[in-house]
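Tokens for chain A. Residues wanted.
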């Protein structure tokens, strides 16, 4: 785990938000495996609590899983191979970077709890205790104020993080400080809630195995992207985003049978793409840019995988939705005309 800058919480990439993300990622892993559809998160700005309803950490492994490196149990699962981190560091690092860190697991009618301070165990349940609580894991932590100077969690950044989790995990419900977050339409919901103005045509939303895409155009000149790999927000893009940009151009050219310039096709584009990759490689420790060339070791190239997906799914969508297709082509043709007119004026 790499927390990037420490910060005080005034920026959404400050370290305290990485601590929260590491705890939540374990909850999401359980949801992906089919265990636990609800997560409760509470934060008063300084103390964070997270409760999932997954299977719960095996009670006899609770100490190891929360304080000893490389003791996770995610290596053999196909789903877990498409996680962002597999080295078992996550919550151990949160533990080490917290003034207090308490963890309790509920599993099949039994429970154990361990309380830590700066990574060192203070109180340990060495025997199981009976409980009526549902299966799952409860974690509370207070970031170490000697490292995160004068920190405070900002609700707007936490809520954005939680909304992104629900966009990427349809059916997941997250409760945060009395608010409820849930997404029925995945990346389509993400775009609808983030568009700065009305779209020129209804959002195109297509899905396939390990890939989801949503996009539309608005009246702007640039391109805006929300890209994700295995639930990680890749704010700097990467190979998956490049493959989408290229595949979109090729598919629209083939569909329209016109050799539009790429900037005319992508001008005003607002898009979201989510991809699941086995053993992803990132170009930096902060995992904000994907560097993987293939969707799996010895597997198909990301460029080909995304391109083939768009060639089939997007082409089919455009043929089945002629009004949307016409509106898309009108936008592209207008961009082409305006570019040529501007070029003529400059001459």
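Reply:
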């Amino acid at each position: 785990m790499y927390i990037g800058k420490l910060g005080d919480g005034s920026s959404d990439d400050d370290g305290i938000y990485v601590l929260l993300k590491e705890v939540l990622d374990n909850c999401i892993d359980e949801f992906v495996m089919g265990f636990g559809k609800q997560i409760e998160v509470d934060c008063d700005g300084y103390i964070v609590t997270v409760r999932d309803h997954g299977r719960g950490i095996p009670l006899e492994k609770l100490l190891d899983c929360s304080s000893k490196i490389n003791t996770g149990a995610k290596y053999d699962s196909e789903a877990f191979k498409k996680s962002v981190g597999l080295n078992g560091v996550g919550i151990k690092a949160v533990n080490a970077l917290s003034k207090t860190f308490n963890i309790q697991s509920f599993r099949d009618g039994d429970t154990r709890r361990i309380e830590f301070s700066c990574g060192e165990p203070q109180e340990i349940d060495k025997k199981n205790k009976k409980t009526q609580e549902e299966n799952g894991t409860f974690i509370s932590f207070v970031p170490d104020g000697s490292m995160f100077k004068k920190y405070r969690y900002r609700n707007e950044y936490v809520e954005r993080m939680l909304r992104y989790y629900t966009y990427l995990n349809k059916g997941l419900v997250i409760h945060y400080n009395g608010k409820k977050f849930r997404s029925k339409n995945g990346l389509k919901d993400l775009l609808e809630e983030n568009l700065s103005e009305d779209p020129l045509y209804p959002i195109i939303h297509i899905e396939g195995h390990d890939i989801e895409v949503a996009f539309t155009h608005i009246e702007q000149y640039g391109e805006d992207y929300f890209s994700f790999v295995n639930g990680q927000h890749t704010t700097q893009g990467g190979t998956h985003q490049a493959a989408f940009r290229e595949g979109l151009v090729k598919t629209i050219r083939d569909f329209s049978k016109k050799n539009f310039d790429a900037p005319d096709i992508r001008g005003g584009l607002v898009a979201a793409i989510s991809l699941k990759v086995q053993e992803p490689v990132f170009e930096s420790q902060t995992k904000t840019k994907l560097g993987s060339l293939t969707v799996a070791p010895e597997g198909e190239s990301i460029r080909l995988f995304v391109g083939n997906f768009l060639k089939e799914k997007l082409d089919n969508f455009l043929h089945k939705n002629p009004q949307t297709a016409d509106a898309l082509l009108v936008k592209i043709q207008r961009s082409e005309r305006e570019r040529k007119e501007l070029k003529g004026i400059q001459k």
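The chain has two domains: 15-182, 187-346. The chain has a mean pLDDT of 92.
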